[in-house]
Amino acid sequence: MGPVPQTAHTFDWPDRLVIGTVGRPGARTFYLQARAGARLLSVALEKEQSAALAEKIDELLDELMAADGNRFSVPDEAPVELVDDDALDQPVEEQFRVGIMGLGWDPSTAQLVIEAVPAQPVDPETLEPVGPEPEEVLVVRIPVGAARAFAQRTREIVDAGRPLCPRCGEPMDPEGHVCGLPDGPQ
């Protein structure tokens, strides 16, 4: 991935890690937000990145649960006391827009490690990044129970968008929907 970013925003055992949204369904901006004490950091990401992160976290936790007789005590469901349904902390100030996300496991601390690197402009011909390497990265380390709760909340946030058209499967806007299928809602 090249040289190490100059600024690493690191949150070990944060007080809070959530994905939330700003805006109405159909025009929501997704944010990954970490808080430790008075430190608050928000990075913008796509709905698809949010959904993929939740899916990968659950896959990793399921693998750990099945391996070595679950020696890391991975819960199969989000522990009730760790479920966080509150809104994003205010103010939501975008540090950067996420380009690449990484997910890892640190067995020495029994924590999942989430890394988010800013998006870089790409050459439309080669799709290779252009310009300097990103100068910052967000690194968050969370224990398995918090990770399970984070993934559950993220799925709920992603699913709370616009309802899908029962005919064409596309999201419907509150102002109306032009269905791509014959005889669909107009």
UniProtKB/TrEMBL annotation:
Superkingdom of the organism of origin: Bacteria
Annotated NCBIfam families: conserved hypothetical protein (TIGR03847)
Protein name per UniProt: DUF3090 domain-containing protein
Lineage: Bacteria, Bacillati, Actinomycetota, Actinomycetes, Micrococcales
